[in-house]
Amino acid sequence: MFLGFTGPNASGKGEAIKYLVEKKKFISFSLSDIIREEARKRGLEVTRDNLIAIGNELREKEGPSILAKRTILKIKNAPQAVVDSIRNPYEVEELRKNLKDFKLIGITADVKTRFERAKARKRTGDGETLKEFIEKEEKENSTDKNAQQLNKCFEMADFKIDNSGSLEELYWKIDGILNELNYKPYKRPSWDEYFIKMAYLVAERSTCLRHHVGAVIVKNNYLISSGYNGAPSGVKDCTELGCLRDQLGIQSGTRHEVCRAVHAEQNAIIQAAIHGSGTEGATIYCTHSPCIICAKMIVNAKIKRFVTSSYYPDKTYEELFKEAGIKFDIIKKPDLSITTLD
Q: Is 265 an annotated catalytic residue?
């Protein structure tokens, strides 16, 4: 989930973001961070007036959405993020275009309340009097497309919050928006989800022209080996020679001996043996259920659990696993997209 905040000075955007970060585990990003970096490069003091001037200059030189474009590069792989300091309509459009289901929240409060908050936080450049505070705010509502246009951004908000009350009221309103969006916190994958997803990644190395299969062997939640289906090491594979089974018209799940490839489970067991990693009591995660040949090797490798998310046509392994006491679990195929914070 990607959220953004816009609104006038001292309206409570920072408190809203702090709540999302601390209580909902969002990652926070600010478009102003791009401007702050630029100010430091130029040796300028990071004041509100300098930030406004540099931001307007960057938008004029590189386009009105430049701050959003640079920020998107940092956050697009985050599981859930909140973006602050959105002050130009082109920034809103850029975020909506590039961040899935991005929602903009506008926060405001009456001007006297905001002025009192600004005085209490004692931030340089907010204005000493209510008149100065309002005058500075007017600079953030230009008609220039490359300048700040806070009022227009607020009009574009998907949700609007009046934050003239207490922090508890603000949190309650944010929770209401999250509920309306069917918010579900980012869930760290379980061990089974983690390792089965890894098996699918391993399968990408397969050279089989029929099925890409990957397997990983795990002991005490530590990866000890991996394997994919493909020709023996150092010889030509099916991508070079074509599929012998296709040429002979052999159906999937039958006559396993007529195949140039070593199966994924076999390769994983072989790799464990080569590197001296014991497989007794281990779990093997595989993208597909095993053929009978692999099943026999798994039994003799003393592996005690087989986890997969897809059935292979040959099901003769079932009775063998039952007799050998090997636990067989089929789990939901994982979301194969990679979710990381760069």
A: yes
